[in-house]
Amino acid sequence: MESLITVIIPVYNHAAAFRRSWRSLMAQVYRPLEVIIIDDGSSDDIESALREAKEELAGKADSSKVTLQIIKQKNQGAAAARNRGWQEARKGEFVIFWDADTLAPRDMLAKMKKQLDESPVAAYAYASYRFGWKIMKSQPFAADRLKRVNYIDTTALIRSEVLMDLARPFDETLQRFQDWDLWLTLLEQEKKGIFTPDLLYTKIVHGRKGYSQWLPKWVYYLPWKTKKVYAYEAAREIVLRKHHLFSASG
After folding, report:
1. Domain count, the chain
2. 115 and 24 in one domain?
3. Please, are residues 161 and 198 in contact by the beta-carbon 8 Å criterion?
4. Same structural domain for residues 66 and 120?
5. 81 and 205: one domain?
6. What's residue 25's pLDDT?
7. Of 215, 189, 5, 19, which Cα lies nearest the Cα of 112?
8. Same structural domain for residues 54 and 135?
9. How far is CA 187 from the centre of its chain?
10. pLDDT score recorded for residue 218
């Protein structure tokens, strides 16, 4: 019998993106799945999108292999929504935080699961992805580099056992880099990731603001700093200091 994968989906005012993401998830060849959707205080037409999701699942031939739980809460942010999903999970062997703007080919979960099966010492599997038109390249795991820069996205397949001691895996006090903070926390416990050498998914960016954010590299090399760059550097500094790593200010 295949191992259970828990899929945690935080959603906030992304009904259109969620519909596409849901269809992408339901097309995954891997089963069984436990899906937990956290509506983080949305004010758009997410209700109808969630209703459609229930109906679509009920009409699937393998619906018995997918469980769905929908949780509604006041808006608290992505980190809090992900943590709520983790707290409510049945804790299958694997968990993935699948944002509502994620699109993936049918074999994404299967490929990540295979990577972990072949790498029993790895705590999680991650991959490169597209952010709209931009390819966000990742690389083989290197602890020293991870301590300087985050090259691992939130959407990684994680062994649930490595999170068992973390009641709230994502630091809700951080405005940015919650994923980097998690990977550094796991690294401090000698838990490392494994790179899946494929471009495995896409983040929808057209016509919306989302959980995922990105600035082109050239912005950081301008002779002046924009507000977004200042915010980026300040957030990075917070994470570095939290983990007792070097900082830009020394």
Report:
1. 2
2. yes
3. no
4. yes
5. yes
6. 97
7. 5
8. yes
9. 17
10. 42
Do 112 and 177 belong together in one domain? yes
What was the pLDDT predicted at 179? 97
Which residue spans within the chain are E strands per DSSP? 5-11, 33-40, 66-73, 94-97, 102-103, 124-131, 134-136, 157-159, 193-203
Closest CA to 44 of 235, 231, 208: 208
* Residues lower than pLDDT 70 in the chain: 206-226, 229, 247-250
Is 37:69 a contact under the CB 8 Å cutoff? yes
pTM here is 0.90
pLDDT of residue 217: 53
Q: What are phi and psi of 21, to 5 degrees?
A: -65, -40
Q: What is the pLDDT of residue 250?
A: 43
How far is 160 from 105, CA to CA, in rounded Å? 23
184 and 221 belong to one structural domain: no
Same domain, 188 and 247: no
Write out pLDDT tens, residues 54-79.
999 999 889 999 999 999 999 999 99
Asked if 71 and 88 count as a contact pair (C-beta separation under 8 A), the reply is yes
Q: CATH number, domain at 73?
A: 3.90.550.10
Q: Is the dihedral of CA 154, 167, 209, 49 positive or negative?
A: positive
| pLDDT of the residue at 230 | 77
* Shared domain check, 161 and 52: yes
Q: Output the CA torsion sign for 213, 24, 5, 47.
A: positive
Q: Output the CA–CA distances (angstroms, integers) from residue 151 to 45, 77, 143, 183, in the order listed.
A: 34, 22, 11, 10
The residue segments making up the domain with residue 149 are 5-209
CA dist., res. 16 & res. 49, Å (int): 8
Both structure tokens of 123: 């705590």
Tokens of 101: 């703007």
